[in-house]
Write a structure and sequence with these properties.
globular; 252 residues; binds fe (ii) ion; alpha/beta; Purple Acid Phosphatase, chain A, domain 2
Length: 252
């Protein structure tokens, strides 16, 4: 059994009422402190994008500090991230504009973190090179083990008007790849700043809540975004037979 914590959209550097990003940093620290204090083990902590609010090098320096953990921390970029400083400052790699895709081999499962960002835009797309890479990774290596595929933008409408217009498009191409690989147990994403669960390509599509804020449904009224809801995260528990169960937690 593998337990993974999943958080998203910490938006470090987001300025609220001139606080210089202090609120965003505190919220991310609160969630990471909660995970570090858990008595039991975690296979990994996933952060599905929008680590930085403006994609600034300083925000990635903060991210490196705030996300330092006793657990392995796996990330992918979101629409607020910028690939060059993300690579250089957070990952300590050579700068480059190509998508930041990573395969992580955890005990009992492969986790593929994909880059659904499009430089300069808020909607998302897995480009052809990313989909070819995903197809190849799923076909090679530990094919007997389940795989989790994570990215920032949900490839389906969530009935949240603020997000549906800037979701991941070109999703039929992703569906074609996923249907070739029955080892994929679930899809994990963020971007929507709401804890949600739906399906895509016959698979669970599990959305991590936003740490920095919560986007609300039309039936809830109001401005459509709440900065009052406390930070939240998800725990995904993967059985030996590849079945995933998700629990959502409020932190604080
Ligand atoms: Fe976000
Ligand atoms: Fe986003």
């Amino acid at each position: 059994m593998l337990t993974i914590a999943h958080l998203s959209d910490i938006h470090l550097g987001q300025d609220r009422h001139g606080d210089g990003g202090e609120r965003a940093r505190k919220r991310a620290e609160q969630v990471m402190a909660y995970l570090d204090a858990l008595p039991g083990p975690l296979g990994a902590v996933l952060v599905t994008g929008d680590l930085a609010d403006h994609g600034l090098p300083e925000e990635y320096r903060q991210a490196a500090e705030v996300l330092a953990s006793r657990h392995p921390v796996l990330t992918c970029p979101g629409n607020h991230d910028r690939r060059e400083p993300y690579r250089e400052v957070l990952l300590g790699e050579e700068p480059g504009e190509q998508p930041v895709n990573r395969l992580h081999r955890l005990p009992g499962a492969d986790v593929l973190m994909l880059d659904s960002s499009i430089p300069g835009r808020h909607d998302g797309l897995l480009d052809d090179s990313t989909l070819e890479w995903l197809d190849a990774q799923l076909a090679e290596g530990r094919t007997e083990l389940p795989a989790l595929v994570a990215f920032h933008h949900p490839p389906a409408e969530l009935h949240v008007p603020k997000v549906d217009g800037i979701r991941q498009f070109g999703e039929i191409r992703l569906e074609r790849v996923l249907r070739r690989h029955p080892r994929v147990a679930a899809l994990l994403c963020g971007h929507s700043h709401t804890p949600a669960a739906t399906t895509f390509a016959g698979l669970p599509l599990l959305v991590a809540p936003g740490v920095v804020s919560t986007i609300t449904l039309p039936c809830e009224g109001g401005p459509g975004i709440s900065f009052d809801h406390p930070p939240m995260l998800a725990f995904h528990v993967l059985d030996g037979d590849g079945r995933l169960t998700t629990h959502y937690r409020v932190v604080g």
